[in-house]
Amino acid sequence: MGHHSCCNQQKVKRGLWSPEEDEKLIRYITTHGYGCWSEVPEKAGLFDLYLCNIPFPDAKYILYEFTLLAVLCMLDKLHEAFFQYDNVLVPNQKGRFVVMLEAGLQRCGKSCRLRWINYLRPDIRRGRFTAEEEKLIISLHGAVGNRWAHIASHLPGRTDNEIKNYWNSWIKKKIRKPSTSATTRITTLPNDHPSQFGYSSSQQDFLNNQDFAVKQQVPQDAIFSTNTSSPLFMFDTGSIEGSNGDNTIGRTEFLHESTELNTDTWQVNSHQQQVEAFPSQASFTNNTDSSYNLPPLTDSMGPMDAHSCNNMNMEGELGLECFQRQDLINEWVETQYPSYLFWDSADATLGGEEINVPNSSNIGAIISSYPSSL
DNA sequence: AAACCTAACAACCGCATCTAG
DNA sequence: ACTAGATGCGGTTGTTAGGTT
Q1: Mostly located where (predicted)?
Q2: How far is the CA of A107 from the C1' of B11 (A)?
Q3: I need a surface site. Which of A102, A120, A231, A274 has the fewest CB within 10 A?
């Protein structure tokens, strides 16, 4: 008890999250939503969402094989993967491509959950607390004590961890240093107030110093709303399109990609609440970047083929166009990675056996599985 | 410039609670 | 009803950036 089982794994990474890890987690969650955090680490492979829903084995890298057409459909993304993550795109002699994808996160599910909730969630509100938020925190803390999650539920975009840190650092300090005038002003409080809200005398000092209207008792109904139909959080499309913060800009790029794939509602907790987690595609009508024209993800989607390509809203000419680009992609692979050997026996060597990829010092590939449907 | 201090915040730990089998 | 695993929550620690001496 106590330690989550997934945290006992030997190779679980600890400490600060890298941008790459964040990206993996964001991509996974924005596509699949979250339901079972313990599954997230192994499933949060980089391109799972673009390719197919295949369980990730316990290996650092995973091998997929795709038709040329599928590869061409994914070309933009594979380019990106190629350059950013040292993945490998190698055509074999059968006209099929082997795509090597970095496997999941070396984190425990608990860590993934915390990272998402406290940092990566799209509706997170960063920056300093406003005076209104500060007052609300003080008020709620007086009412419910250290129930940070409860307090956070009344401050949209703020996390319990953030509020807790804020309280422990800043507010506590303020309370510890009441002004000399506080003792006189506190007498204006109703006699029953301390017991009603559980404020300490020092807290009352602070509230008085802040000219906070604690004289007006906050109705308990207002604090403890039982309206469970209110969403846990709502996605603020305005903040995204506005891109008014550094973090927002970077995250928006993810969301632009993900919204093409996910317009479903999210099941956000065990009470079956569903919220519109991300804006509809219509929210991004200004986005004309063709690189975002990715295929829709379906649960049953296997490695893409010509049929799935036709489902990608790319019209009939696509197939021909794709094949016309075959020379281009071959040329591209040879130009960019002349030292890579073309893999011409993938079919024979896959299927559970370990395969050492030639010239792969930066890959270190161990292949333990590949899609059975291939 | 270096050492030290401090605030802010990210992440971990352990316990409580929930839930599915 | 019981149990094991999963998740939620609060306390605590670790890390880092910025300020001060």
Answers
A1: nucleus
A2: 12
A3: A274
